[in-house]
Amino acid sequence: MTTAEYTSRLAAMECTPWCTVRDHEAAHDPACWGPDRVTALSLEDDFPTAAVNPLQFDAPRASVYPYRQEPGYREVVKLHLYRAGRNEFRELDAEVVMTLDEARQLIAHVLEVVDDVEAGAR
Ligand SMILES: [Zn+2]
Q1: Which of 13, 31, 77, 84 has a CB 3.0–4.6 Å from the CB of 103, allowing a cystine?
Q2: For residues 85-106, average pLDDT
Q3: Who contacts 46 (Cβ-Cβ below 8 Å, separation ≥6)?
């Protein structure tokens, strides 16, 4: 495929309803990326202690967003875990791809664990 053919293909592709990419041709990327939902992780190392929005800095965080590699591929949930860390052994920058059912199962398990902890705290 020539560059012109690839560019033409990007211009003609159909986005997902949740895609935030305004122009796939300009981005040179056929992937649809949805909006990030970011959770700051306040118990992790190097979490900012000042009264600032931690997400404006390089704070430890977990992000989830919808993703499709390109037309014809399945739509998935991506989970990104990030912690800068003070040394390379504590750094974390990993992405996990899940089916919609797997994401629902993970959510259910997290809620069950929260319920277990809260039940013990009473
Ligand atoms: Zn798109």
Answers
A1: 77
A2: 91
A3: 58, 59, 60, 83, 84, 85, 86
